[in-house]
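Notes from hallway chat w/ T.B., transcribed later so I don't forget. T.B. wanted the structure written out for a chain they're using in a teaching module, and asked if we could keep both sequence and structure tokens in one place. Agreed to drop them here.
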Amino acid sequence: MFKKTSPERDMILIYLHMQHTFALRREEVVKSAPPIAEIKERWPALFCESQVYSEFNRIANQNLPYSFFAAIDKCTPQLLKLYKKRRTGNFGEKMEQLLMGYEEQDKSNITAARIAALAGLPLYLKEDFSEIFKTCKEDFGAVQEGAVALVAEVDKEEVPAGVPFETHHVSIILEDQVVMSHKSWPDSLVILFGLIYALNLSYPEKLSGFFEFIQVVLLKLDDGRKQLKPKLQALRNELE
């Protein structure tokens, strides 16, 4: 009689298979740089949250969600203080909207604090995140285009500074197609970062400073060798 394997058993088998084929997969991804659709067809398990984190650990020898959230939680109080000092100019106006939106949130909600800290980073670095971090209420197709994006489904038409403190779900987009989704915006961002590493992608040009901050300052993946841009170095100095 045929006996089905349990979901836990399936995940163990998937992990073992992905571990065994890592070298082959890495060679394909780095040397051939195939389209995302092709990678998804050949390695579908790579687009599972647990396997994104496992792949990142194979590459960087680091527990991505644990390291990421431990670092951002440590930096959040200081980051919010810095944000309050930067309220002038176009980016300053958006920062003011972000901070006002955060003030309306439950301060015991750690997710809200993480969103405020992370969404404020591009504004502090004077980077426009509107093409990468998007929100929609109903017409998802209208905002789906984008080589790399996080699209959060929200209830309200107007979202303070474009920052989704409350979401139904967040779609992760690579090469104009939804590859994964998650209910939490911060978790979706972590998954996106993991996918960029796993798929050997370049950081979005308009948010290069933001992603370099995650890589170098939060996750310390440069071993002290990467020369940071002056504004990133200044921010790192403020946080040390």
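Follow-up for T.B.: The chain has ten helices and four strands. Might be a good example for the class.
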